[in-house]
Amino acid sequence: MKMLLVRKFRVLILMVFLVACTMHIMIDLLPRLERRGPESRPGCSCPPPAAAPPRAAAPRWPSKHTLRILQDFSAEPASNLSSQSREAAERAAGGGGAPLAALFEHPLYRAALPPLADGDLLFNVNSDIRFNPRAAEQPEWQNEDHHEEFLPTGETSIDSYPNWLKFHIGINRYELYSRHNPAIEALLQDLVSQKITSVAMKSGGTQLKLIMTFQNYGQALFKPMKQTREQETPPDFFYFSDYERHNAEIAAFHLDILDFRRVPPVAGRLVNMTREIRDVTRDKKLWRTFFISPANNICFYGECSYYCSTEHALCGKPDQIEGSLAAFLPDLSLAKRKTWRNPWRRSYHKRKKAEWEVDPDYCEEVKQTPPYDSGTRILDIMDMTVFDFLMGNMDRHHYETFEKFGNETFIIHLDNGRGFGKYSHDELSILVPLNQCCRIRKSTYLRLQLLAKEEYKLSLLMKESLLKDKIAPILYQPHLEAMDRRLRIVLKAVSDCIEKDGYDNVVENDFNMDANTVTTKR
């Protein structure tokens, strides 16, 4: 009798073990079965089923290779609050927003660029340039065994190029993109809709940034949301330890309403952290940092110099997170860029001050130093100064230009994530280059005066422009009002310079008047 009980107990243990194995195999197979939609069934030519009414999408089952099996949050509604807030912002605008269209019809926004010669184009479309989009600024990809290349030659119509490539071949000596270029609007749409096929961490950064590659081989830099719209930079934070804000990157692109057109296209996107980051990354260092928070939200933190730890993890709701996607510039192997130290760079030290902070005549020294002793570079610095002051961006330590164009070209306004940190404070030290040099382009000065008028009020124009973004509203209302206040401060600074040095010595005429056309010299 005792032996019979022992045998029955062994059989029971064996059955429990078999059931556990079966469940383990089913859990392994479930994500693979879920990834296969109807279109992947062999031999099925049936039309897809009718679309069901929209409802909150459940995050996909992740693979088992995480710290623990992630939970299925399908019972919770997706936290797509951005669309709701965007609708609220549109209602707040009252349907009668500022006349952006009227602004772009103004003569100041219709001035033509000088005629473009072959040397003024970054790329000659008809030349045999071998574009390798997937290797753009991602050196680790080049070490792998990949052979796909995109070859734009004279044999292919430009209309067939992907939008990111249209953006690249449109770059010239004077601007990153032309006014009202339809490829830019299409590229912004791609940034928020294209399928993400791979994700990797950007190396060398002080804060976490991700390189995302899309199905059309385009690439973008993703900066995830770290602060809510209304949060200001804590008063005890140094400028070099401030957060990089995704909405500041988006707003900086729209601030090209100043007609600089020097910020690469940026769009906001709501990203599924499970399906669009963790499931597609091959970066093991990134993948290992995913975990579930006590609130049952999916989080990760990656690797970087600042704010990359479980205490500063990026958490979704439950796995949705906002971020900005900035389109990549052309690969450095195709279009080299030169990095310049900003003459008015801050000390990046808790106690030391930079030379320009203690020497009121510092600009005179700068103007005797190449490339600031000739050409338009000093005027470009003044444009960048105004741009940064309107945003409250103190973190402009370097800038870049395209090497092909030498010193006679524009400054690229990259990395604007530390702008729009404080709406209650105007950092006047950002304006020091303008106050010391007392120089500004006439086209810039006239546009600033125009945007100070009630009918073209900068805050209203920005609000209308930002409503186009998918995660609008982008800026908290006090930030918009702060731009109007700062614009008046800039105009007062220029006015003081004119009173001191005379109009012709301060305002550089960059207009060519020929017959019925107005051309900017840039």
TrEMBL record:
MF GO annotations: ATP binding; metal ion binding; protein serine/threonine kinase activity
Cofactor requirements of the protein: Mn(2+)
Similarity section: Belongs to the FAM20 family.
Subcellular locations according to the entry: Golgi apparatus
Annotated Gene Ontology cellular component terms: Golgi apparatus
PROSITE patterns xref list: PROKAR_LIPOPROTEIN (PS51257)
InterPro entries hit by this protein: FAM20, FAM20_C
Major localization listed first in the record, in broad terms: Golgi
Protein name: FA20C kinase
Annotated FAM20 C-terminal domain residues: 290-507
Residues that hold Mn(2+) according to the record: 244, 415
The species this protein was found in: Elachura formosa
Binding site for ATP: 207, 223, 244, 326-329, 400, 415
Catalytic residue positions: 395
Chain intervals for the UniProt region annotation (Disordered): 38-59
Family matches, as CDD domains: FAM20C_C (cd10471)
Keywords in alphabetical order: ATP-binding, Disulfide bond, Glycoprotein, Golgi apparatus, Kinase, Manganese, Membrane, Metal-binding, Nucleotide-binding, Transferase, Transmembrane, Transmembrane helix
Keyword Kinase among record annotations: yes
Sequence intervals crossing the membrane: 12-30
